[in-house]
Design goal:
Chain lengths: 337, 337, 337, 337
């Protein structure tokens, strides 16, 4: 932590600041410039709320934090890439893992048709929602446990791993009975009790970025999960909220190489929810691969015009297959498996 | 819903769109302009996911939704202002209700000292957190039920109503045993199961705006609560996330008169969390009153330099008292009680 | 400037950083913590592009700038409030100066009717656009010099000072012949040549905040004007661009007390352009006064339904008069003249 | 335009709205739903300010615009892609044109070294700033005409086309004497007089997106240029301002396929300014290509540690060459020339 003092700080004010730092068992290094005096604060453990407390002392202009606030997801803590393994599917080892399927599970027929098609096209994981967070209470909110059963069943039948969203603490155990990978949605990225509950089980977890979360906050949410023991976290960029309304959200693809630099965790991308338009999914999938994604989460529906959820952003089975051909060719080029 | 067709739409494409609308038991009104043809869609019940489905049909340029997606919080549904009553405290009747207290309950002494001071200065409700959502897992996260007991106890002793945050479904019943008003925090504004659980009890509820939520989404979250029976919702503006970093968030005071126009619910303002700086709380409190706030939620701490949480944004007891004098005078002026 | 080094920085890397700092005639203070080593950089003059250059050196994690990048508008440079005087109108002396009038000057009749009414209601300055920046080239773009003549004429007749926008370098001299106060619009806040040209004349200037400008960038734009000699800068908050679409922009009223703390310049508020809705102008005007505004810039039109520009946000003469009564009462209360 | 009326609109109010529409020589189509009544407004020419005027009439809830506000850049106006030709360089014909060079021209030696290297690596256009817009007046602001001469000279010597920024109306003629392509920077995207001046000359023009501009506003700025006769507009995505601070701006790559759908103009991408970090330029260049960019604008400097401008985001000559190899291979894959 760096404490920047006001230009005309008095000796008394500076003493008070130094005393408050000493009280927290930290060491101060003063450096006086012509314009500003700053105090470098060093020590084994910085109490998280100390900067706030010091910022309000008289004579203090502002505080700058230096240490990263997250630890377990950081590359400094673990320099080598984490590879999350789900059976023989490996996420983060340089390959591209495609997770595809409908927004909501609507019936066994719908899911099976989708699963067979995405498997044939090269997807390794089947996605499908059984519990759906919806902005309006009047939208379709998923089939619940019945949907989970269909998902597990279809996954087994087609030999695809399955991923689905968990929304509440009490669903964690239930969902983990059926799903190979749990997903925490954008609206729950800072639902800390849910993060910790998922941290207590031994199951890979896709952590979607909150739509107004900074990259640092996203990694702090990963810390909540990892701090309880579950290290199999897969980060998922899915767009942030900005002033632009031509797309549902603004896909922040720069976050991919930024996260790769700051963290050892794999990071995938969901172009379907980010853009909200099916015709933007293929170019943004290729773009995500260019930016270094370890995987893609793509909505596919056999009959998007009649989807109960997010029809506008779902690819048809045929469009998905065409996209997969391009992705495979691009992977070859990038010397990725 | 209005369907806007592309300029060169074919008859076949238009027929397909009309068929899809008819299939949903809705009526189409076509109007052809020189540049564009639009279809007005009318009917008793618009399926929430139909616009998405139609948007992807060939020949469709885009969809515009016309009906408001929320109903119970809307002024069209209930034209007169809702007044939420908590004993003899009335929120939304033209007066200004001030809710003040520390970010976190730290001890009986701390809370009692604060309560006595804010009561004397004119506050009617005591706030204090027992369960704290924190961006970092290493920050102080509240005293839990022990804190709730202190809160209820100090509230009774000082004859102040008390408000505190509830973070999970299973805390709802517990918190409701101790608190007069429940609070749903900004990170939980779209935690739909929690909203519904709070909707099932008979207790007033402060619903904070999500930091990236539009006003419409905020009212849809109120709909989740009200749809389960609890109509005592108090909306609370607490700042939105923008590019400006001089303040923690950007307090969107325009939302107050906008909400008053769109909804019958009372709306209060939290200048402490919005700005993150104690010296911005007094001017922004006066500003909120000017914008029409029904109440204020203000952080006050007897010794902010040693607060375990959010010290930088807490007023001292003395600063709070000075602010209250100004607020009272301003209320007189505005002919508000 | 603080240079934060990576955890495993080598001695060679650190030497290279220290050499680069010395090369710029600056002094380094090293402080080593358990987690991080930081270098405090001190000296008479920090080259503005040095931080960027150092940030890319091997072993450097990131750079933090400490000194404020602006000087002339800062309170450290000039602690006492600047009062801008326009004849007997004083902006920044604790009073509230209201500048009112139509978005565009449309005719002598329109402007005179407005001027007489706003003068009667208590406004001290008449606003009116002769050169209008419009997002679409097909919108009405102002009467040009003919409008300026009408403005000066009506100002003289009604004994009101006049303010109008200047959009290009070659208009500066022309506009200064007619107007008492020049205005630089939001889209031109970073049109540096225009800022400097206005800096060369002796005429007060309203500098609107760019709709995506931080407060620091806004003050840097003031620096461009002041650096050329013109110290009579009046800052004007007019809303920033955010994700919220219920209002045209988001009025950032917190910027008023923030600017007052950082700068000695007067700061006014334009609730008309910020909100884009006439019915939001009265509450947001009162809010701006609560937040500490030195003045207001309000659009008023005798017949807003037929305005050639921004009709939706203009007050009628009657609504303006009602608002002024409330503002005067509130000023009394706040013990402001 | 669609006019949405309030639920309880009176006949008198509706008559007033209809009269105001008729007064503008437009036709109304009324459709009454159970919840809402809407009026479709049709006609040859919608006055740009009419929607604002109608929105404030009693009984009107809100207005929705339907027609696109821009015409010349739209695909509806010109369905086939525009190819901008600069000698034998063709931008927009399916290939990828790389424009590379230093942020600022600092000397003939610096520019020539860069030009030779980028040419060898495969760039077709040399970029270099002679007039630099800088947030701070104390930053290096370019060599001016001297720099232009160097640019033209080095371009001729290396047989590279050259592009450079023009900041003011009076620079247009001067810059056009030296440069093959003019560039309008992000801060000037809504400097309408400058746009029109560039519209009057016969020279290709790169129009950077304003950092808070929507895609629609960007196309409207293109309309300003094209409306004066110059149809050779190249759009350039360079990041928008959001809450995320890990990158300088947020590169909105989705804008590329969105623009391609809405407009016939070529669109290129500037990953250097968008991210502000040299190590993000290679992945975001590949991503831009995946998203469909017609070209890239990349900062390259022979000695970035000593660059007078934007050193942190410039690639070294060696890094640039490595990136170009990857881009060429990816182009092959995508079957682009």
């Amino acid at each position: 932590m760096i404490v920047i003092l006001v230009k005309n700080v008095t000796d008394g004010q500076m003493d008070q600041v130094l005393a408050r730092i000493a009280e927290a068992h930290l060491t101060s290094h003063i450096s006086k410039g012509e314009e500003t005096t700053v105090i470098g604060v060093v020590g084994a453990h910085l109490p998280p709320d100390l900067p706030d407390a010091i910022e309000r002392l008289p004579g203090v202009s502002r505080i700058m934090r230096i240490s990263k606030s997250y630890k377990l997801p950081s590359r400094e803590f673990k320099p080598s890439n984490t590879v999350v393994e789900v059976g023989d599917v490996r996420i983060g080892d340089g390959g591209l893992v495609v997770m595809a399927g409908p927004c909501s599970i609507e019936s066994r027929e719908q899911l099976l048709a989708t699963a067979l098609a995405v498997k044939k096209a090269g997807a390794q994981v089947l996605r499908g929602g059984a519990f759906k967070p919806r902005t309006s209470p009047y939208s379709f909110r998923g089939m619940g446990e019945e949907g989970l059963k269909i998902l597990a069943d279809v996954g087994a039948e087609t030999d695809l791993k399955v991923v689905t969203e968990v929304m509440t603490i009490d669903q964690v155990e239930l969902v983990a009975q059926y799903a190979d990978i749990l997903q925490i949605g954008t609206r729950n990225m800072q639902n800390y009790q849910l993060l910790e509950e998922v941290g207590r089980i031994d199951r890979p977890c896709v952590l979607k970025r909150g739509m107004s979360a900074t990259i640092e906050e996203w990694l702090l949410s990963a810390e909540y999960i990892m701090g309880k023991g579950n290290k199999q976290v897969i980060l998922c960029e899915r767009g942030i909220r900005t002033f632009e309304t031509a797309t549902r959200n603004t896909l922040d693809l720069s976050s991919l190489p930024v996260v790769k630099r700051m963290s050892h965790l794999p990071v995938i991308c969901d172009p379907s929810h980010a853009t909200g338009k099916w015709y933007l999914v293929p170019p943004m999938s290729l773009a995500a691969l260019g930016a270094g994604a370890d995987g893609l989460l793509i909505e596919v529906h056999p009959d998007p015009d009649h989807a109960l959820c997010d029809g506008a952003q779902s690819l048809t089975l045929e469009n998905f297959s065409t996209l997969m051909d391009k992705l495979v060719a691009m992977m070859d080029l990038m010397n990725r498996p």
